[in-house]
Amino acid sequence: MSPKTIFLLGATGFVGSYVTELLAQEYPEHRLIALLRNVTPERTQGLRSLHPGVEILEGNLEDRELVAATAETVDIVIHVAHSDHEPSVSATLEGLTKRSAKGGELPIYLHMSGCGILADNARGEYVPPSKIKEWSDIDLDLNDCPSENTHLPTDKAIFAAGTREENRIRTIIVFPSLIYGIGKNRSRCGMWVPIFTELARKAGHAGTWGPGEVTQYAIHVRDVANVVILLLGAALDGKVKGGDDGLFFATTKEPNMSWKEINDVLGEILFKRGEVKESGSKPFPPEITEPLGDYGWSLLGSNGFARPDKLTAMGWKPEWTKKMPLRDVIYEMIEDGIDSYRTH
């Protein structure tokens, strides 16, 4: 295999920091270009500690022309920065479409989405697990997902680029469930930690969308990064063509926690720190939840169960999730997440 050029969006992020490190370990022969905002010697050193050979391109996800122009020149784009960021997704598709039109090997686009596409709109109310639909990624049709759910607009645009006949892109979309753990670089936790923390400070208590008796399967951040690298290898080997066969759930059935249980822990920690008026959690009032609209209810007030049938058939196992279940690391993870975002 000839060396490829990879363009990575989200290289210093929660998942991306592990992806960057794994690219250095597993694919050192490939050229890596990483988009990095606000480049400083400290940030450069942090990124190069993960991948010594990385080439840094200064910019951010809003730099549409830069993202599109770079995507046009590379063989592979990996986007693990922001699943719903339409400008960077459309710019990536624009650039890779032009790259495809030049002929030769089809470019690869590996995108990280999420299981928010499966949200059941339970409004935070308890639903017996036996009554919650468990989705499979075998023959998954995005049109079967509730149309108001998160991620779908960008996911459908990516899928369309992977299934068209003209100027096709080999698209692969990964759908992780609730990602937890501690990151390696600046973004040391999933976005749900700072989201719930900031809302708790505004409300004076930790809280949930409705009663919060809803849940998703949980997966450790390092398992998600391993999935990205596994699928990159499968694409390079021709085992995954992209498009129709490029939709993958990255989930586990390890013991999970409801949003109520998670926010009880957050409330306990924030109360001990003197940042909220009471311990535990209770439903947020409408003035807290309404600004996020349907997006908030879909992401934080719903259930979503999925089986990683295709990854399992490829031999993948969620080793880090089994080794470090969510319940075992929840306190450490939230403490670290609060501290790391306070310093940003």
From TrEMBL:
InterPro entries: NAD(P)-bd_dom_sf, NAD(P)-dependent_oxidoreduct, NmrA-like. Residues 4-82 form the NmrA-like domain. GO terms for molecular function: aldehyde dehydrogenase (NAD+) activity. One of its GO terms (cellular component) is cytoplasm. This is NmrA-like domain-containing protein. It comes from Pseudocercospora fijiensis (strain CIRAD86) (Black leaf streak disease fungus). PANTHER family: NAD(P)-BINDING DOMAIN-CONTAINING PROTEIN-RELATED (PTHR48079:SF6), PROTEIN YEEZ (PTHR48079). Pfam families: NmrA.
